[in-house]
Structure formats: structure tokens, C-alpha cells
Amino acid sequence: MKVHFTGIKGVGMTALALAYQDAGWEVQGSDTKDFQITDEPLKNRGIKVFEKFTPRNIWELKKMVWKPAIDKLIYTGAHHGSQNVEVKWAASRGIPVMNYARALGEFFTGKKQICVCGVGGKTTTTAMIATILNEADQDPSWIVGTSSVSSLPASGHFGKGDWAVIESDEYAADPESDKTPKFMYMNPQIIVCTNIWHDHPDVYKTEQDTVQAYLSFFSKLPKDGLLLISSQVNGKFRPAEQDPAPQDKLIKCRKVCKTRVFDDNAALKQMVEEKIAVPGEYNVRNAMAAVMTAEYIGIPRNKALEALKKYTGSKRRFEFIGESGGILIYDDYAHHPHEIESLLSAARQKFPDKKIKFVFQPHTFSRTKALFDQFVNSLKDVDEVILDPIFASAREAADAEINSEMLAKKINEKGGNAVFVPVRQKLIEYLVGTSKSGEVIFTVGAGDLYEIHSKIKQELGRKSH
Questions:
Q1: How far apart are CA 462 and CA 465, in angstroms?
Q2: How far is CA 77 from the centre of its chain?
Q3: If you ran DSSP here, which 8-state letter would residue 398 be given?
Q4: Which helix (H) or strand (E) holds 139?
Q5: How far lies 397's CA from each of 10, 127, 368, 390, 391, in Å?
Q6: Which secondary-structure segment (H or E) carries 206?
Q7: Could you tell me how many helices (H) and strands (E) the chain has, helices first?
Q8: pLDDT tens string 65-120
Q9: Closest by alpha carbon to 318, among 95, 69, 127, 44?
Q10: Rounded to whole angstroms, how far apart are CA atoms 263 and 288?
Q11: Are 37 and 11 in contact (CB under 8 A)?
Q12: Domain 108-308 class, CATH top level
């Protein structure tokens, strides 16, 4: 059987494509020519990627008759979702088509699903749990939303074991035609929720709307299921005078499944801090969630902690890029104010005596506009912030009422140190020209800022010589 992934370079799509290949499917896909961090794993696995969206990718001439060349098509919510030319064409010819979220849920129907959700930390926590299960010879399946994980052979895998560890997202399955939160297509046995913040204002108008989506997801747990939440999440369910519904729903949820807080155990916290190889208080919490998940399914604590030592990071999560001219370069996917605060805290913990620079690319106009003040507060304490223009996601139109220059101005008004450089090459020149040996540069954001790494290292190298 052959499956085609329309928009295969997305991190979730790539992980699912690799899992399909493990399960014996012939896999191919299509996407734009733009470089993505998933290019390498797709190439290494011999998966053909057409760099254009066209029906010719899924149609072939056999014995002078045009016939479908695929048995199934899975598409991303990006690249116009169900309105993509390949998707429309396949559907009109009777080829089964489904969006990524629906396909993910269907693919793992026969597995006991550990679903990791949250606005920050779900990629790392998913990777940590998968690592523990893999090291414990459980032969798990997993879907991790990045291109590579230090302690796993790939970001996606289909194993013979009972458990599947799945990064589960609250964003709409297909913004144009299916507003269902992606994680609602899962059938969880265990849910790990790292936090709940207002992150997608194009889908959820308020944080309360986001909370309601999560509560609906939690209600999918069976009676013998487990809900693992952080103390931060627990605080979201305090009843408001005008709306007691969240508390009522959580109480109802707790009546049908076990609920535990994973980051309030001082003894476990100390053990985790001694074992993990990644910095930051937030990674301690992620690791605590992973260990408690493992214990629940029968893996001893000491074995889980030993396995965690093998996890040294995931692509675009506090990732060390290199050193040039005495300057360290790191990259991180942080794109929400709370994530930026956590990243800065971890950076200061690791480099207490060094000047820290963030090159930040805001992601989407809607998020930048809705969380503007929070972004200002999270960035004003960085030693220096160099702002790139807002990354305009394909899922929304540009908004002339918000830009990175406004963000830089407000950061400076609040006592911070920020500069906006509108042209990418000029940004590189500014960064290289002002950086000195002993400093640490972080490229930060969910867009394409990682593309400048090789140029920065090259120019810094020239400068040092």
C-alpha cells in the first residue's frame, strides 16, 4: 500500500510518515522547495519528496490508462488544507483523504495512547517518555514534533509494543475546513498536560476558550485512565465567579479517571535534577512527568531515571549550534512569552556570567498582537534582543497594525535593550559586528530563523581571524 503526504515537511507529518514506513507502507510526499529541518531525515529514509503540489504526484499512466498511484492521502492543515490541489483532486477521484490529526488518531487506534499536550514542553516530554519506554525494551511507538531526538532513532516510529507516545496539539486540525482541536482525534489511556496558556488567538479568542478545549480532551479518558497535570495547570481550574464551569468539568473528569499532579514531589525532583542532561527548571518538570508516566505503566523509577540520562535534547530545543570566535550559538523553538521566560531562565542558569543575546522572530501576526504586552515583559530582561520581522504563517493574512519595530520600541520603553533590523542580511551583519567573545547568542522562534546559523558562524569566523 502506498500513502502520500501533502505537506510532508511539517514536523508532525514527517514523524507520521516515518511511522507509516515502519509499519510497512510505501511512503512519498510533496511540499515546497524551501529548506526545512525535516529534509535530512526524509532523505535518509529514502522517502521521495516532490517539491511542488500537483495531481501529477499522485497519478500515473499504466498501460495507456491514467490511474491513481496511491492508496491514501494525508494532508496538513497548512498549504490550504483540504483546498490544496492534490487533496481536492484525490478526493474527487475516490482516493481516501484525511487530515493529519484524523490520520494520526486512526493510525494508532490499536495502541494504548499516552498523549502529551500543553503549550510548552510537549515535544521534550514526549521524547523523554518515548526514550524511557524504548530503553525499557517496550518497543513503543511514538510521534515527536521535531526532526530529530538525541536518544531516539527517529522522530516517528511504529513499534510492536502496546504503547504509543503521541505529541498532541490543541490547534485546529484544518483551519479552513475542520476546527476540531487536533488532540480530540486521539483516544488516550494517559494524558500528560504540561501547562495551558493562551497561544492560538486565531482559533481561541480567550485563554478560557483554550481551557475548555483541554477539558473536553481530558473527558476522553476512560475510567482506568490517568491524567497527569502540572501544578500550573491545576491552577487554571479555580472557579471564576462568573463561570464555575471549568471546576465542575474537572471534578467530573476526576470522577472517571485518576488525576495526579506530577511536579509537587520534592524527592522525585531532587532525583531528576541529579540525572537529566538538559538545563532549565522546565526540563526538570518535563522529566518528572516522564518518570511518573513510566512508573504508572510499570517501569521502576530507577530504571526510568537511568534512561533519562541518555536524553540530551531535541532539534530546536536549547540546541547547541556551534562556537565561533569565542561566541556560543544556540537555537530554540520558544515562540510564546512563557516559553521565552523559561528559556531565559535556563540560559542564565547555564551561563550565569555571560552576556545573553536573543535574536527573536515573532511567529504569526495574531499571536504577536494578542500577547503583545506579555512578549514585551518576557523580552525586556534579556541582555540584548535583536528582532527579525514577524514570521507570516500561511494560515493568516498580514496585519498592518502590528510589527516587530513596535515590539522593540515598547521593550526599550520598559527598560529593556532591543533593536529591530528589518532586513535579514543586515541583521546578520549587525549581530556579527556587535557580538564579542564570551557572549551567547540564541536564535529564538518557531519560524525560519534557523536558516541564518551557517551564515552567522561563517561571518563570526572571518571576524575572529
A1: 5
A2: 15
A3: -
A4: none
A5: 20, 33, 13, 12, 11
A6: none
A7: 17, 22
A8: 778 899 999 999 888 899 999 999 999 999 999 999 999 999 999 999 999 999 88
A9: 127
A10: 6
A11: yes
A12: alpha beta
**Residue matched to cell numbers 521521495:** 48
**Domain residue spans of the chain:** 2-102, 108-308, 319-464
Cell for 5?
A: 503526504
pLDDT in tens, 242-263: 454 555 555 555 545 688 889 9
Grid cell at residue 135: 530503553
202: its cell numbers: 486565531
The gap between the terminal CA atoms of the chain, to the nearest Å, is 56
Q: What are phi and psi of 330, to 5 degrees?
A: -125, 160
Output Rg (C-alpha) for the chain, integer angstroms: 22
The helix/strand/coil state of 343 is helix
Dig out the grid coordinates for 391 from the structure.
514570521
- CATH architecture designation of domain 319-464: Alpha-Beta Complex (3.90)
CB-based contact 297:163 (threshold 8 Å): yes
325 phi-psi bin (left φ>0, alpha ψ -120 to 50, beta other): left
**CATH entry, 2-102, from 1.10.760.10, 3.40.50.720, 2.60.40.1120, 1.10.10.60:** 3.40.50.720
Determine the Cα–Cα distance for residues 339 and 337; give it in Å rounded to an integer. Answer: 5
Q: Exposed/middle/buried for 203, CB within 10 Å: 0-12, 13-18, 19+?
A: middle
C-beta separation of 114 from 192 below 8 A: yes
Contacts of 341 (CB under 8 A, 6+ apart): 378
Per DSSP, 312 falls in state: -
